[in-house]
Write a structure and sequence with these properties.
The chain has about 350 residues and is an alpha/beta fold. The protein contains 16 helices and 10 strands.
Amino acid sequence: MYKITDIDTIHLEVTQKCQAACPMCDRNMNGEGINPHINLDELTLQDCKDIFTPDFIKQLKSMYMCGNLGDPIVATDTLEIFEYFRQNNPTIHLSMNTNAGAQKEDWWFKLADVFGKHGHVIFSVDGLRDTNHIYRQGVVWDNVERSMRAFIKGGGRARWDFLIFEHNQHQVDEAKALADELGFESFVAKKTGRFVTANTEAKESHQAKDRKGKDSTELKKPDTKYLNKALQQQEELVNRHGSMDAYYDSASIRCKVSNDTTKSLYISAEGLALPCCWTAGRMYKWWHKDPKKEEPIWNFIERAGGKDSINAKHGLDKVFATGIFDDIANSWTKSSCADGKLKVCAMKCGSEFDPFAEQFK
């Protein structure tokens, strides 16, 4: 797939902690409680120094904090980690995705200074004062607006990503107007892929729960204008192939993280190195009693020598020496997922079906 010297982008998930309880996030069981398979791990500044040497950072074009489970603004060393990367590469592009619901103004001013013109923050805010908390459960609007204003006032470059549901679709234009008023560089109305399932089931809605286990809001798809087109493509693929599983068996893989334009590596809050957040995201699905027995990514991890063998805290060169990246790439030529083709790669990077990309169209 690639060598360590090829890597130009790092996707860093610095923490599994978050103050929110978003019901479609793998960290939460529909918003009710924390995923029982995770330990709320978090990387420290020292961990990052152990993983990323100054020479390695110098070869990078970008580093961004996002991931599957946590929000970087609640991690203890986020600001210091960004500073470490900036000190060792003055032109690296730094960025992060966040719900914006934490940290004081001074923190945001400092972040804007570290990023400068070589960086930006993507604020994931799905509504306004009366709607953002419906999906971003636990996120307080006053904190969100304070964070956005402080970062931009400090000179930071900002983008607003707005996930569209039925309950907030009427506010897209109003939110864009607020983004313009606040000084955002761009506003993205995202056609969420959260209603696209991996099987042939049509998911029309999703019942959210609160931390007490009580039903909160039934999340519904937006109108056709804001619908992710992959939902229609999914129906067409089922008609043509017989099922989504049959499509995944035959799908050609166009890897999003290893291609002619980028060579990206994902590091989890445990310090584990995998090609992307999607492969890592299959490790701890909360609805599995034992993910190791039910998710194929664990077969690749075990062949590499077990989870500790892909822990980048021991050195990125040692992770690459396990051969796990080539093992994953070689699986793409297998005749089917049952034969060893990594299904998550077909789901996320199959050439005919891309709910992720369709969010931005």
